[in-house]
Specification:
Radius of gyration of chain B: 26 Å
Order of helices and strands of chain A: HHHHHH
Number of helices of chain A: 6
Distance between the termini of chain A: 65 Å
Number of domains of chain B: 3
Number of helices of chain B: 18
Strand content of chain B: 5-15%
Strand order of the largest sheet of chain B: 3-2-1-4-5-6
Number of strands of chain A: 0
Largest sheet of chain A: none
Order of helices and strands of chain B: HHHHHHHHHHHHEHHEHEHEHEEH
Shape of chain A: flat
Structural class of chain A: mainly alpha
Shape of chain B: elongated
Strand content of chain A: under 5%
Radius of gyration of chain A: 20 Å
Largest interface: A-B, 87 and 115 residues
Structural class of chain B: alpha/beta
Helix content of chain A: over 70%
Oligomer: heterodimer
Number of strands of chain B: 6
Chain lengths: 105, 466
Amino acid sequence: MEQILLYLSANMEMIYFLLLAILLGVEVISNVPAILHTPLMSGANAIHGVVVVGAIIVMLHASPDNYAALSIGFLAVVMGMLNVVGGFVVTDRMLEMFKKKPKKS
Amino acid sequence: MMSLPILEITYLVASLTFVIGLKMLSHPDSARRGNLIAAAGMLLAILATLFLYQSYDPNKLFNYGLILLGLALGTLIGTVMAKRVQMTAMPQMVSFFNGMGGACAALIAIIEYQQHPIATAGFDGALLVMLLGLVIGSVSFSGSMIAYGKLEGKIKDKTLPFNQAGNMMLLLVIVGLIIYQLFGTAYPVLFYGLFVIALVYGVLFVMPIGGADMPVVISLLNSFTGMAAAFGGFLYGNKAMLTGGILVGSAGTILTILMCKAMNRSLTNVLLGAFGSAGGGGGKAAEGDQTVREISIPDMAVLLSYSQNIVIVPGYGLAVAQAQHICHQLEKLLEEKGVEVNYAIHPVAGRMPGHMNVLLAEADVPYERMQEMDDINPRLANTDVVVVIGANDVVNPAAKNDSTSPIYGMPILEVDKAKTVVILKRGMAAGYAGIENELFFYPKTRMLFGDAKDSLQKLASEVKMV
């Protein structure tokens, strides 16, 4: 028990951050017109691609002769980047079609 | 060395762009810029990690070549896939990319675990974060892949015997394994066992969930991946990862709840797969003495041309037939004849919320023509003709009338109130949720069988001649 409390207090700053970010996410999202649900989901999907940063960090630390870590890490970098790039491009394609409205009217 | 503060500031800026981008994504006018801003922040975070990270760590860092290769490969494949995908296949594409993110988080946890000294005794916070990242990332990966396969039509809905009980047991095993490793001994075999079980759980979790509920599942898995990314951020004390992950985690959860509300069901109800199992009774009504009334294309062209106002209800069938452009053409032809045409968009029509809006926007249908369910429902009674194109469950009156129906209580477009309803459909098969639709047998209902694109094309040329 004591160790759990110690871990919590050692990471208190991060825990504050976590809680505030959760509330922020809820605030930012409420009140979205149904039209934008798909692009929003897709955009959010691209944003969690930030996990690729973690994959890069892992790779930076892996020693060049640790082939297991290298191959898993490489896969993680590729997949994370797929998430980022694919996510943003797909979202942009969806929103591109919404853009035509002001031009028409 | 100045690069450490610069790295920290870059992460701060990236975090801000995620928040602002997400905010802007929720307004039609700013949505596209919001996406680009978030993308710019992401680029910044990635570049900063590549070039400034050494300041964190006095040790030598490695593998720049491999990392760059991986980034380039991911960029290339991602761009090609995202550019080539058809508008109709968007939902499964999002699901696929989501799965990639989940896999990435799980793989990070695996490598970190391999380099993590096994704690002798007691609570190990870093291990907890790794285990959670591993489990959530894996569930998100395998679940998203199944959702992808289902939407592509490669995997059929399947309820295994004792699926729910089995899922519950797996979940208990997962929780048990996490607790055991935290407070007992963290054997590597348990860690990898957990990985495999989480993958299996993801498959079994999505497998029985019926088609109409797919949007909810994708949204939920999206927030899972967000959480998994956040655990990664926690592990490294990386605030960009933490903000990005948590934002998506909570935003995705809210979006999921919004979708459940649109169907008037609870999340547990959706996840337990009530649709898939309870729809078994469907299909028998069609064999009864009820008859459907077909309408010919020339008759329908006349009907539409001499109406005052028409409401079009698009569904997944429109997306599958790629009929959105011809549908817009027909709408313009009718407008020229002085007919008022509107589109009624059910929040869960198609395979994702907003799916129909995206599809119609692609065909240049103006915003003002797309009406949301609550706005259009009171006006349906004064509508001359409702044209339902490839939608079924969202107009099924059983949701209001039949308390035994699995979709009972779901808000629907009350098209049965209109003077005439014409339903464009391939055949008499039940909808994706597998439920019979009594609307087809109403005296005021006419059926036009065939491929939506084909029918609409013939209809358009017929309307021209009226």
